[in-house]
Design a protein that fits this description.
- Chain A: One of its GO terms (biological process) is cell differentiation.
- Chain A: One of its GO terms (molecular function) is protein kinase inhibitor activity.
- The complex is a heterodimer of chains A (216) and B (827).
- Chain A is mainly alpha-helical and 216 residues long.
- Chain A contains eleven helices and four strands; from the N terminus they run αααβααβααβααβαα.
- The radius of gyration of chain A is 19 Å and the shape is globular.
- Chain B has helices at residues 2-37, 49-74, 76-81, 84-103, 112-129, 133-138, 140-168, 178-189, 193-203, 207-237, 244-275, 286-303, 308-326, 329-358, 368-394, 403-411, 417-424, 434-462, 475-495, 500-519, 522-525, 530-552, 569-572, 579-594, 608-615, 620-633, 655-678, 683-703, 713-717, 765-774, 781-790, 795-811, 822-825.
- Chain B contains 33 helices and no strands.
- Chain B is globular, with a radius of gyration of 34 Å.
- Helix content of chain B is 69%, strand content 0%.
- The chains are: A mainly alpha (216), B mainly alpha (827).
- At the A-B interface, helix 3, helix 5, helix 8, helix 9 and helix 11 of A face helix 19, helix 20, helix 22 and helix 23 of B.
Chain lengths: 216, 827
Amino acid sequence: MGTLQSSAGHPLYTELSEKTGFSAEQIAVLHKRFKQLSHNEDILRRQHFDEIPDLSCNPIRSQITEAFFDKRNFSRSNEGKVNEIGFEEFLLVMSHFRPPSQSMTQEQRENVRREKLRFLFNMHDTDNDGTITLEEYRHVVEELLSRSGALEKETAKSIADAAMLEVASISVGHMEPDEFYEGITFEHFLKLLDGFEIESKMSIRFLNVDATTLCK
Amino acid sequence: MGRGGSVRFWIFGSMLLIGVWGQEPKSERHDEHGGGSNVSGISIVSLEWEYVEPPYLVALWILVCFLCKLVIEANHHVTEFIPESALLICSGFILGGMIWGADKVQTFRLTPYDFFHYFLPPIILDTGYSMPNKLFFTNLGGILIHAIIGTCWNAASLGLSLWGCQIGGAMGDLNVGLLQYLLFGSLIAAVDPVAVLAVFEQVHVNEVLFIMVFGESLLNDGVTVVLFNVFNAFVTLGGPRINAAEIIKGIISFFVVAFGGSLVGFVFGLLFALLSRCTKNIQIIEPGFLFILGYLAYLTAEMLSLSAILSIVFFGVCCQKYINANMDENSVRTMKCAVKVFANGAETMIFVFLGISAIDKSIWVWNTGFVLLTLLFILIYRFMGVFFLTWFMNLTRLVPIDYTDQVIMSYGGLRGAVAYGLAVMLDEAKIEEKKLMVSTTLIVVYFTVILQGVTMKPLVKWLKVKRAASAEKTLIEKVQNRAFEHILVAIEDISGQKGNNYLRNKWFKFEENWMSRILLRPSVRERQDKVFNVFHQLNLKDAMSYVVEGERRGSLEFIRNESAFVDFKKKFGEDMTMSMPDIMADMSDDRSAASSTRKESVPSVSLEVHEQAMRGTRAAEGLDSHHLLQQHLYKGRKQHRHRYSRSHFDINKDENEIQEIFQRTMKSRLESFKSGKMGVAPPKTITKHTRKEQQQKLQNKKSKSRLSGDEDFEFSEGDSASGYDTSFPVRGGYRPGAGIENPAFMPDVDLPLQIPPWLEDVDSVAPSQRAQVRLPWTPSNLRRLSPLRISTRSSDSFNLAEAPGDHQDDQLPPPPTPPPHRDGDVV
């Protein structure tokens, strides 16, 4: 631990810090966690995520895991999946969850918000065609509800359908009977979650201190 | 105008009271007199005022207070600027003035005993029971910091500063020691939940700000009680005898009082939750448990000299989820309403009595320095405390509380009846300046409630404080919320942080695995899912608005497809709409053959969703014959008996009776609807068509077992000509034929829906004839629906509604353009 703390001034860290906005201490903590997850290797694979015990009971863990291997979350232009990620990618994904700093201007805040929502949108939009189709949305709802065993698949499905109806009525308004709602585009997605206090709902506090010893 | 009216009301109310008092001595005399001399004579009417005096006065006072509120609320222009609590206090002044004028002495005042035993518990119970739990617990840290440290700071700083000022000579000659100043500080330090709630409910600030102020006001009670008791004991002991041991005892007692009180509340709450698992058979009184157990929790804590407020708050917080789930929907609604009635009533009375208490010469002692300095210090130290503590909290908060919010938090530090109650409880033998303290407390209360209350709204506007977001939850928001929760937990897991989300997740799991298992009825546990609940709520709302809209238009018209129409069938219709085309095809064939005259498509009453959901498996033949039999065998119209029962709500359980009423209602409703909508289409055609349809469908059924539910289709058949196909107004319901039980509708399954077959009533002559007669004057048909609507409930009104219809038969002209083939069909 001491060695890691002292390596906070490592040139790699300052570079990463500029890229992701994490402080050097936070990066050091996350790096340690990364090593712990990857069993001291330089890359993380999907099975490493499967080994996290606390994650195993998360209903949408597969989606979250996928998000870490999704190129869209590393930089804007890329598409597709990778099979292993390095520490930099790990940090880049993590950086979506940084709380916005207090000194931000309104415009910056808006950008942060967009970024966070984009991440979420990408998570739902599994085939990367720019819309969340009903099929995809159903999948999300099914997984979300899968933990509360009593609800059957059919219920989840109809909830998803109802939500989709709602989306259609909010974002498009009146539709002719023969019109077909393609799915949620990102613009609609932004509009839908307009009232959301995304800053608090998609941010976690990254500690400067190392707490990984508590984790299995 | 409104003011004039209110004054009149007040005068009326108090005249009533004064009138009663005026009679008081007379009646006494009368009693003595009558009792003494006329032993043998029987007085036919005797005025037993003394006998009923206490409850009578109580009831009268409650009435007067409620009337005050009624008058105040009658004028929205006033309440928009001045909070209701301030107006109530003012009306209390006026009432007090009238009493003073009549009696020359203040006969009524708020005694601490009444306040703490009768007025306060219902208010706090309401806050606990309707507490937004998640919000409360996520901000619990900040609330506790403010409630504990903030209150101590307020008390200490005020006491010390006043003492310093006295030494400095700012207040003249007062016989008050440091300890007494601290005692005074401790009683006036606490922010009052009643006052805060009354003001903040009207300004609609954002929820975090609200819960910070409100939560603080609730939880600081524990601190206040302890501080008050400790300093009271210290004052009794006297300065020199206080040593370290006593102080440590005081600090320990704080923890005991606060946590003990909360514990008592928790225990009672859990007991209640357990109890509510098995109150199914006494549904009529199960809401009463909330009040009785809550009050017991309060009194138990009081008895053990623990914090009673904390006890009843946590009672409500703890049990709300479980009892709301366990109990019947009606009981829950009763509880929610009753708790509000009590709380709002008690609050009204508190404020009125706070006003009345002021009009009493005997309590007022004025000391300009003391009063003004107290006001000044209260305000200043509140601001200092809040800003410092919030700065400290913001170091760790994810979303910091900004400065405008802090200003409102500080400014929202209203003092109220709790402080007054404590001040009155001071012992005059030990504290010579008790009167000064009481009157200062009153001034502080008036200042904060009236002045700060009035200025709160403009201040909130001026500072542009974030207002509460419109709380209407859409389904997608709920789903996203759920997704966020899981994502955050996952990211914390992955990154190895142990944050709030981690803890919350652990708690949820514990709650789900243990608490719910023990405290919830098994049948209820399955339905415990937030997303599903919203789904259910939305469904209910849809159904309601559907019915309302339908009634507004005079019929159960299909209305939803105007707003949003998603044709899922196009892409995802594989498994859910397979059965539909067949039916539709059948119908359209049938329709074109049987009723070519009908051009305008009539929207369908798509109630088959319910129908299918509940009876998808029953055999159609049996059902049909059953209905046929019932239709023909049961003809007698029973007298409607309104059975009185203390333990049951339901008026009329005779299924046949209800069915008869329902059928007749629906029949006439449909007829008028049809004649109104289609103008020329003869009802007879439809009836016949239905029959044909039925036969066809029976055949269908034999061939396709999948169409298990379609015998219900004739329910909407009567006016089914709409081209409406796959999308139903009810969410999630557009999958007919798939046989899915939509759980959202399970509770809605009601008897009336079980009888589609008014249409099968081919042989009953009267309706169809009448309907024909009615055809020409379609516009007025709508009017007739209103009596008919009532008629589902009682056959009496049904008769009334029916009678004019029959009567009109004679007078009405025949239809101008009767469709040619109609008469042949009429039996």
